[in-house]
Amino acid sequence: MSESILLTDSDEPALEPAVRQLDGWVIERVTAGELANAVAARPGVRAVVVASDDPDVLRAVVERAHSCGVPVVVACADDTARRRAVELKAEEWYRCPADASEIAQRIRGAVGRGSPPGLSEDRIERVEYEQMLHDSLTGLPTLPVMIERSRGLFKERGELVVLYLNFVRYSKIEEIYGWEKLDAVLETTAAAVREFLDDTAMSTSRLMVSFTNDDDFIFFHVPATGVAAASENEITDMVARLQRHVAGRIEAQHGEDIAALFDIYVGRAHVYYNPKIRLERLIYRGIREASNAARSIEERERGRRVADLRSSLRDRAVYVDYHPIVVTDTQEIFGYEALARGVMRSLRSPEVMFDVAAEADLVWELSRLCRSRAIEGIETRLQPNELLFLNVDPHDFSDPAFNEDEVKYPERVVIEITERTAIKDYPKFRERLRIFRERGFRFAVDDAGSGYAGLGSIANLEPDFIKLDISLINAIDTNFIKQNLVETMVKFANDHGAMVIAEGVERAEEFKTVKDLGVHLVQGFFLHRPLHLPLPPAVAAAKG
Amino acid sequence: MPNAKLPPILVVDDNHDNAEIVRQYLEMRGYPVSVAHGGDEALVLFETIRPAVVLLDVMMPGRDGWEVCRVMKQHPTLGRTVRVIMVTALGEWQDKREALQIGADDYVEKPFDLPKLAATVQRNLAMQREMAS
Predict the structure, then answer these.
(1) Could you give phi then psi for residue A225, rounded to 5 degrees?
(2) What CATH architecture does domain B9-127 belong to?
(3) Does the CB of A434 have a partner CB in chain B at under 8 Å?
(4) Cβ-contact B85, B107 below 8 angstroms
(5) Domain extent at residue A390
(6) With a CB-CB cutoff of 8 Å, which residues 128-157 of chain A face chain B?
(7) Which of A14, A82, A90, B133 maximizes the CB count within 10 A of its CB?
(8) Predicted ipTM of the assembly
(9) A413 with A477, same domain?
(10) Are residues A329 and A271 in the same domain?
(11) Tens digit of pLDDT for each residue in A203-231?
């Protein structure tokens, strides 16, 4: 490759070492008067450094250089020269004297900026194009890439098994914890999947994985020559092992609550090569078939869970975890948030349990059971000065069975209402709140700041407590925007006589940050693990 | 005069005067500064100078700051380490939430005072060092 020439009228000694820092560049010196003509005459010139303080020379050089598409760096002795450089739209400038690395950087910058218009667009398109081919998060190829890669193999071997891995409730992780958490979980998942493939027994055949834009994975299994494609049993076995492997990794890195949201449903399709049909169409059809199969397995599983839920409601088989809420400054227990969980494995996660209830139209029944189980703890679990934080869905207020007389100690109960649920009839809702408030109940806005709504909708509910959305707390120590938002919220709370609760505090750094920001109360594994309410003997027996 | 040890900063603003003011101020404090006047130009420079910190104006014609931030943060090699500071006249809750959603690290409101801007750059560089170690 021919060398790039840096043309200059400057005799600054730092130019030599600067040019050495640029790969494949040489320096050529001419007088100031010759500079403009030399730019046009020498084809290898990639940049010009002008030091002349003569404005006419500077103008001539910049104009000439730009007409040849060569970027200009102005070496400025003073502010006047700098102003001229900017006015003349030189690509870069630096103040003399400058050291070699700065000069090198200016030249690099000028070259990057001064490239002819078409080129820069191409570069961005290339970056975007690359991002489309490989998912930046998981590092896995996207579908079009994988189809290209498997084309030859598929044709040669004549068959291909498509496995569609549907990770259910990953969207729930994002809803609750925010996209950063799901990103991290997907990264763990992809790493675990790759790890699994590396030492899986089907290594005699080609197994390729790709990622679809949302949160699903697709495996292509192409059997090796002379080897039969994996049998149904082999695949079922592999999927079970994969599920265990990924679940284990997720639990180790992200904890039990997130692992409880994790489920894979795998659908499969067998595709045979047919020269009459376009290969990519065959594969896309296979993917669709596999994805439908995954969905129908999910449907079946859902039916099973509804049956589990019905039997749980009958046996009152939910238990309650009491998550301590502590005073930030003194670290004394202020109260507990009650979180009901299903005794049956399939309903362990509260989110899953309520999802199932919503599908089966059993939300009120489940809410009633969870509330009554949670309230039992006021007498059996809590100290007399401690408050019970109770999750209540706004829709529960329309349940005739839910009323202000349900609880014996209303002044010890804080009703948490999530900001996420849209409240349809505001005046009616506020009227219900007023009745509860008069009885002594207090209110907390849950998941505050999760949306774009800001503080107005929070003010509407006149809460006594504001519970910050977990996504604002997660890694707050490294994100200044989160800190700013939480600070705004604390100020708002102080102005309105409310207290702010930070939920999901898991690390010392997060605790320190929220403490510094003036957050009044803190909840999370960093300070305390949840308390379990002992199960009634009949339920304990069923669980065992 | 720029100090070789300080990491490069990319200033993105379609307003040339604003960009120049920020460049001068940061250069006086020793940072090597490059300037881009639009989103596309910013993305090209992003790859060539590999800035540690990007000061990114939100309101720009063409690719706006949000989009530029998103592309930078998704960059396969540079996206993980770069700190992006959104610079904007908007200062509402909604805009900060948007900044968070898009993956930005910090936020400066316009009209900014320069010392505060420098402090913001500094704290992001400090955070970057801490996360790297």
Answers:
(1) -60, 135
(2) 3-Layer(aba) Sandwich (3.40)
(3) no
(4) yes
(5) 316-543
(6) 128, 130-131, 134, 136
(7) A90
(8) 0.89
(9) yes
(10) no
(11) 555 667 777 756 788 888 887 777 777 77
